[in-house]
Structure formats: C-alpha cells, structure tokens
Specification:
Length: 402
C-alpha cells in the first residue's frame, strides 16, 4: 500500500508558469520527490521558493516560445504544433531517465509524454487550467462575434490534441465546478475527473485587520468606491463589458485595472483611458498593497478555469463581483461575501455596483464578514489535496494490478 509508507515521486511538466511554481514549492515542503520540468530559467523558479535541485529546464523552448509570440503575435500559432510537441518529447526523454510514480502535466504538452508511459504503476495525471477546450472554443467564438474582433482561441489542431490527452490521462484535474460541468457536458467520464481548487499565498495576501478597518472607513465616508480588476484586459476576460461599466459609472466609482494589456483591446482602452487607471502587470509580491487599497473586486470574465486573482482578492477581504464562468460560485456566498452575475451582463453588474454605492452600511458589513468568515486555503492545502488524490489513485491501481 502507498499511504504514508511510499514517497510520491512526481514529474511535474509545465510549459510556462501558471500556478505550477506555487504548487510545486508546497509539494516539496510536504516531502514529495518532485522534478519540475519547465521552460523557465532556474533563477526565476527559485524566486517562488523552489530549490534549484528539483528543476530541470529547457530554456531554449522558453526562448523560442517567447520570441514567436513577441515577433508574430497571433501568427505564432503556426509554430504551436512544433513547440508543444518539442516540449512534450523533451519532457518524455527526461522522465525516461528516472523512476516516477506520478506524471503530472499540463494539457497541451502531454500527448507524447503520456504515450511513452507504459507502466500501469505510473499515474498519468493531467491538469486543465480552463474549461473543456471545446466549451472554451465555443465561448470565445461567440465573444469574437459579439465584439467584432479577431480573438485568440484554440486552434483545431490544439482542440484535437487536448481531447486525445483527456483520453490518455488516468485522472484529469480541473480547478472549479464550472470547469467540471463543462467536461461532464461533453460526456467525459465523471470517475476520471477531480476538482482541485487553487489557493493563495496567505503570508502575502492576508492583510492585517487595520486594512479592513481602513476599507470600512473609506466606504462609510461616502467617497467614490474603489473598484479593482486584476488579470488581462482581454475580450476573453470580459473587457468589453468592463469598458461599458466604466463608461457609464466612472463619475461615481474609481476604476483601476492592473495586469496584461494585449494589443487586441488597445482601441477599447483608449476609449476609457481617462476614466480607468491602467497599470501594467506587477510582480505577485507587489500586489498586496493594490488589493489593500481597493473596496470591491470586479471580474466579469467570459471563461476561466479558476483565476488565482479570485483567491487573492478573497484572502484580502474584498467583496467580489464575478461571473459564474470561473471559480467564483465555489468561493462566494451570494449576497454575503459577493455576487454572481451572468456573463455579458454589464447592466446587472452596474446594478450591483449601484447597490453597493447606495448601501454603504451594508457593504461595510459585507467587508467585515468577507474578512472574518474567510476559510484559509493556501498552496499548502492545494498540495495536500493533490498528494491525497494521487495517493488514492495509485493505491487503487496497485489493488487492481496486484
């Protein structure tokens, strides 16, 4: 039996950063024999608390990926098959040189890696950071038609590849019940699905009580409410709806956006530049003061698997207004710690913002409740859940194959 007697020996393959570095750090702290396969430089990975000794990197792949994206923009998809296959084959070669009992890999770079794992005692664990790729594609195509712009969306090649990976996996991790439902709607077997909600780095994002007192005082003073959004000002993240809210309510609210500013939304940003404060993406360690200075967190995304910023905002004690197409329904108590509004419904979001403005005493109470009733979930908890589920899967496999 596995239990506590056998150590997990895990290869964790990720073609970027996503949430892998935070999760990897905690897996190491919990005693997992981890080998992180990434295209990031080791010195960058070390900043997240991961020891250099557990990192195997393919920097050439990272450089090629970033150059293609920077020089070609959306046309970089022409190189997508080559880059994803190369990373997966490189990871497969690394994995073949050491014994592992878990291969935990991100979708898109797992097909060749999983195909080359033939031992039944090795768990092939796939993580999908968004909804089922066919649901994601549909939502983005609908949004492109609504916005009248060309949007970055999954290519037919990637859709086919990911669906093959879904079938190759022994267990597939999604990050929210929204993502889980999207897989079930596509007929994916429920017994292979596991929901692994993300967390936040509480030592960074959990504020002292005086921050909450200051937020309540600001709200009760009657000054314009400070509405914060962090992420990407892209059409996938609902920037069209966000811009409409800003255009109609900027005179009563202070809107702030922090994050990526892609070229696709440049014209939209220019339209509201005088009514919304834009700040380029900040390092994670610089975000806590940004959350501390806000009164509300607004996230009108069209599609997300989870969005770590929701965990950060929740840990920061901010009431959240978000769509159901992310992890918001999993972490928000409707009317008590925030509100859920349908996608593509700026008018409903504005009604909620108006209520917040007109009911300051109640909003101050929601701020206090959001802080006091917060149930901590940090990366340690996420790692513990992953270890538990993988251990259970291995035990079941052991029993099945003797």
């Amino acid at each position: 039996m596995l239990g506590n007697k056998m150590k997990l020996k895990m290869a964790f393959a990720v073609h970027g950063r996503f949430h892998a570095f935070d999760l990897g750090r905690e897996l190491v702290r919990q005693g997992v024999d981890l080998t992180l396969l990434t295209n990031y430089p080791k010195k960058v990975v070390e900043r997240f608390g991961l020891p250099r000794s557990c990192v195997v990197n393919c920097v050439a792949h990272g450089i090629a990926s970033r150059l293609a994206h920077r020089l070609l923009g959306s046309r970089s998809k022409l190189f997508e098959p080559t880059l994803h296959r190369c990373f997966s084959r490189w990871a497969s070669n690394v994995v073949s040189q050491k014994e592992f009992n878990v291969i935990h890999s991100f979708s898109g770079v797992s097909e060749e890696l999983f195909q080359n794992v033939s031992k039944p005692c090795v768990l092939k664990s796939l993580v999908r950071g968004s909804a089922h790729i066919k649901v994601q594609s549909r939502l983005l195509k609908e949004e492109a038609m609504r916005c009248g712009v060309k949007m970055d969306s999954p290519s037919p090649w990637m859709i086919g590849r990911e669906q093959r990976e879904y079938q190759l996996a022994d267990v597939l991790f999604v990050l929210s019940t929204f993502a889980q439902k999207s897989f079930l709607e596509q007929g994916y077997p429920a017994d292979k699905l596991r929901v692994l909600p993300l967390g936040s780095q509480l030592e960074l994002f959990r504020p002292a009580s005086d921050v909450i007192d200051q937020r309540r005082s600001r709200i009760l003073s009657g000054q314009p409410l400070r509405v914060l959004t962090i992420g990407s000002f892209s059409f996938q993240k609902g920037c069209l709806d966000l811009a409409q809210m800003v255009q109609k309510a900027a005179s009563k609210f202070n809107f702030q956006f922090v994050g990526d500013l892609p070229a696709e939304s440049k014209a939209l940003r220019n339209d509201i530049s005088g009514r919304m404060q834009f700040t380029q993406r900040l390092p994670q360690r610089e975000l806590p003061p940004v959350y501390a200075g806000a009164d509300l967190f607004l996230f009108p995304t069209i599609q997300d698997g989870y969005a770590v910023v929701l965990s950060q905002a929740q840990a920061s004690g901010l009431p959240i207004l978000a769509t159901p197409n992310c992890a918001a329904p999993d972490i928000i108590k409707e009317g008590e710690t925030g509100w859920i509004c349908p996608i593509r419904s700026p008018a409903q979001f504005l009604e909620r913002l108006k209520w917040c403005d007109e009911h300051r005493q109640e909003l101050a109470g929601i701020v206090r409740r959001s802080y006091d009733e917060f149930k901590p979930r940090d990366w340690w908890d996420v790692a513990a859940d992953l270890v538990r589920i993988c251990s259970e899967q291995l035990e079941n496999s052991q029993a099945k194959h003797g």
